[in-house]
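Render AzlC family ABC transporter permease in 3D.
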Amino acid sequence: MTPETTKSTYWQGVGAGAPFILVLVPFALLFGVVATEAGLTLIETFSFSILVVAGAAQFTAIQLLSEHAPTIIVVVTALAVNLRMAMYSASLTPHLGNAPLGTRALVAYCMVDQAYASAILAYEKHPGWTTRQKVAFYFGAVTPLMPLWLLFTVIGALVGGRIPPEFALDFAVPITFLAMIAPMLRTVPHVVAAMTAIAVSLLLAFLPYSLGLLVAGLAGMMAGAQAELMMTRKDAGA
């Protein structure tokens, strides 16, 4: 492998991550606005983003804090929302598990949905890539995302309520996850897991402190695992 190939995969990663800027910017702006409206200072808002680096979990925690939910509920719910990161890590291990420890630690810190979605699709398309090429692609995908997430979090906190309501920044949250999840729904277990989680979360929407999300996440994982087990048994029998 030459330096040029590593550089090439890095820039492929930048290209794969760049389109997500369109939804990441309003997503970050919205978090900055919501965080300051919930009572966080500019420094607290920025620290929240740079330490946690998990948009969905941050929104969940802020919402629960504004509802004066018990601290244990805030922590457990935010961790549950971020359980997907553990699954992301498990699926990336075959690709990046041979990287040096420091590199893997940095990959874990930079683990965001958009970078993961871009990387896992690229790794499946290019099974011949070396670990260094895969690492280069991953950090390429992160490059246009994390700095802008932090920057526009600060901008959102600074401008606060001066953003006109007609800008409808809240569209960014569902659009972001639809853009990431839709390309991954390529197998029956994936679809079963997604549909089950959606159905359970809607059925349990009445529960306080968004506890329905916890149950929905667990139900989705169980349903997906069961569907995959059934398909494996069917294939073995055939």
